[in-house]
Write a structure and sequence with these properties.
The structure is a single chain. The protein is α+β, with helices and mostly antiparallel strands. The protein has a single domain, classed as Alpha-Beta Plaits. The protein is 33% helix and 29% strand. The protein has two helices and four strands, in the order E-H-E-E-H-E. A four-stranded antiparallel β-sheet has the order 2-3-1-4, with helices on one face. Helix 1 crosses helix 2. The longest helix has 14 residues. It is globular.
C-alpha cells in the first residue's frame, strides 16, 4: 500500500528542484513518485511511496540546505 507523505519546504525555484532531482530519484523505488508544488505558499513536496521514511526525506533536504517539515 502506498503512503503519501507531505512536507513544507523552503524549495522555491525550479533550479533548486533540478539540483534535488537525482537525490530524490535515488531515494525512491521504481513505482514511487515525488513532486513539488511551488505555487503553494508552503512549497509542498509530496512523496507517494511504499518504502520511503519521513526522516529520510527531511535529512536529504536539510543536507542540501533546505528547510523541510512533515505536514500531518
Amino acid at each position: 500500500m502506498k503512503t503519501i507523505l507531505v512536507f513544507k519546504t523552503s524549495v522555491s525555484k525550479k533550479r533548486q528542484i533540478k539540483t534535488l532531482k537525482p537525490v530524490l530519484n535515488n531515494l525512491i523505488t521504481k513505482n514511487d513518485y515525488w513532486n513539488f508544488d511551488l505555487e503553494d505558499c508552503d512549497n509542498i513536496l509530496r512523496v507517494e511511496t511504499q518504502a520511503v521514511q519521513v526522516d529520510s526525506v527531511i535529512r536529504i533536504l536539510k543536507k542540501h540546505g533546505f528547510y523541510c517539515e512533515e505536514l500531518v
